[in-house]
Amino acid sequence: MIQGNFLELPSNWLGCSLGDVIDYGSTQKADVSSINKDTWVLELEDIEKQSSKVLKRLTFEARQSKSSKNKFEKGDVLYGKLRPYLNKVVIADDSGVCSSEIIPIRCDDSLIDSRYMFNWLKSSKFLAYVDEVSYGVNMPRLGTKDGKKAPFILAPLPEQKRIVEKLDSLLAQVDTIQQRLNNLPDIIKRFRQSVLAAAVSGKLTEQWRIENNVTDVEDSIKEILNDRSVKVTARTKFPQPHLKDEEYPIPDNWKWVSLDSLASKIVDGVHHKPVYTEEGVPFMSVKDIKNGKITFDFCKYISQETHKEIHPRCNPEKGDLLITKSGTIGRTAIVETDDIFDLFVSVALIKPASSEVNMHFVDLALRKWVNGIDISSRVVGTAIKNLHLRDMRVLAIPFAPIEEQTEIVRLVEQYFALADTLEKNLANAKQRVDNLTQSILAKAFRGELVPQDPNDEPADKLLARIKAARLEAEKLEKAAKKAAKASKK
């Protein structure tokens, strides 16, 4: 019975239902008590979505699963009916048992090529039908009745095999491209890290130093400390910078200084969870600092009364630097707004001690430190990693002449803008390649991928043979059951 609104197909093809060619949903149950310990047990979680790669393979002994299982044989098409939009379909390369959420589909290769069936189940036309009829809001699945009614495009058997061979070749090329694209994010990430390392070690501006006269870094540091002494009266001594053997070399005219010496204030947000309000003063935590920016899109709010109580101690202003210190540590952002907001304890505030401190350069130094962080020696915490303020104050910052800091920030922004462009282009390329797979499958099931052969047995005659074979199999099964019943008398 033809189902669905099929596009015009080649004259020797046929649109029908899945239930016309296979007994969808008819599975052989496995008795858990009799499963061999070395039997392969396949769960849905073992299959990667979309790619359908088997990510892990565990035995019954390793799984120790007691839930009901379906048996499958080598060559069966295994279809994940739960959350079918994940497109989890594999061809078994060995026998085993699987979750009841996986439907084994056995194809007689003298009638239907199992690889042809596999590709059809992954095609956009089949997925569109499944998406429409799946039931269950949180755990949608394809029911047996709807599975039998699903559309199926039947091509002549020889053409099925030609289509599959062509698909194997083309989709292998697509897979190669996808793998190469999947490697690029790590390359771009390493590029950013290399730029940071070159920036704060002075390598990025080696030629610039030769061509430019700069101020004495000692004079800059003295001016910063003088400005700091006006703002900070509580301490006159600074902690020594936390230097370790592996700290990187810096140019002779640079100097290592502690973060504390560059800041008039290093403090974290309020230590108790405030009462949130529907509106009011934005209250920021780790989740609100992403990709070097402060985002107010999903922040909490507190009342004006609470704000007035907590703001004097921790008062972020434009030009200050924020760094997350709990949970996901090391996210940084320069405050670029005049809007008033408050911070939770998970975020630390660093205020520059002087206008001579380029907080964008300090930000680069902190991000470089985060990339190579030694959690065991510098970060305190157990279940939740936590960077304490005392650890931050002794962080060693490579301090360059002010003019060179400005040039370094400019160059880093330039290189990072290039990386941003590469990431956008990569995302677009990945989308095009992802669409390419479905475009190829659509072309295959329109009869446009390989030429038709007029000598091939037409699909309508093939369907008649399929139905005859299924009818014969049913008769044999009934006869076998009858014989088994008679033998017990």
From TrEMBL:
Keywords: Coiled coil, DNA-binding, Endonuclease, Hydrolase, Nuclease, Restriction system. Residues 11-184, 251-428 form the Type I restriction modification DNA specificity domain. The keyword Hydrolase applies. Transmembrane segments: none annotated. The keyword Disulfide bond does not apply. SUPFAM superfamilies: DNA methylase specificity domain. Residues 412-486 form a coiled coil. GO terms for biological process: DNA restriction-modification system. GO terms for molecular function: DNA binding; endonuclease activity. Belongs to the type-I restriction system S methylase family. This is Type I restriction endonuclease subunit S. It comes from Pseudoalteromonas distincta.
